[in-house]
Fold this sequence. Notes:
By secondary structure, the protein is mainly α. 51% of the residues lie in helices and 6% in strands.
Amino acid sequence: MLARTTLRRCAMALLALALxxxxxxxxxxxxxxxxxxxxxxxSIAARNGVSGRTFDRAFAGVTAPxxxxxxxARYQPEFKAPVWQYFDNRVHEEAVATGxxxxxxxxxxxxxxxxxYGVDRxxxxxxxxxxxxxxxxLENDKIxxxxxxxxxxxxxxxxxxxxxxxxxLLSALKILERGEIGVHHLxxxxxxxxxxxxxxxxxxxxYAVDFDGDGRxxxxxxxxxxxxxxxxxxxxxxxxxxETWGYEVVLPGGRKFPAGTMSLSRWAQIGVVRVNGRGFPRxxxxxxxxxxxxxxxxxxxxxxxxxxxxxxxxxxxxALAVGLLADQIAGHGGLVRDWNRPFERLTxxxxxxxxxRLLALGYYDGKIDGKxxxxxxxxxxxxxxxxxxAQDGHPSKEVxxxxxxx
Length: 406
Ligand code: CA
């Protein structure tokens, strides 16, 4: 672990040196070199069918790389968040309640999307929550920025992502060439993920649909377009209509389990059964065992749709968080076995209260968003030190109790 961290530090120092060498110091010099790169890219874009007129409109005012994009691209957390933290920040009662409220608000559209693509609305709502907090992140211009500038920045200065960024930038320029969205509305995350359901330009080109029928594939401001686009991606990657992503299961103690896939009935034969004791509805389906938090945490048998969700974002934790959130939005219960959490969990409202109190006491200067990240953990540790608690940084009931005394 230590060796890996040290290696990573060395690699980052080398990268910083390489960047310093590639980008001359001083803003004016850096701009000149960037602008040379832009004019070279203009010819590449032209060979790919992007007119000079579109290119010049897209790059109007883009005279220098976006330093915040490079900062985000370089950021590597020193500390890998524990599993409970990943899930607590994403699967909580506020996300469930908002999902249910939006299910009512968008019901006629969700009915139609479900009919056309065969993807359950709760899954689409869960993706919407995970990607942009149901669109709330789109209002935040600290998060959403010019896609052209972000991708040009990465293509120009981020060696690791240059190839990806060039491809995405060309795709973004083609979107502009076709007039699908105006250049000022072509906004996205620092890595170019766009709209309510965060599609990168090539995925937009492949999957975006005009579901509300206004003639434009508008995932930035049309919720029906954005949710239908997500449904289209899932269906085209093999989503199985009316089926779940997987099951929480109980593992019989004292044995090792085979890696790889087996039928659900084979899993049941070796004692891996559902937490509610019921049988598997389609015992012939193949499934893989996942224990993201080790044997002390919950266990899952995941089926085809789990792997389709990973086409959205290729991480087990992502697919699992979407699945668990979707289940709760649909009115099913949460986990029977909790994550391996060394303290008693706060509710979402209590987590916000904890942040508010830490802020009032001067320990915290972040957002009251109910999400525990580096900032909240640091603030909790400092407060724990003040009151003589072990400095583990956990958002526990005990910390909140102590905070309420001030
Ligand atoms: Ca539309």
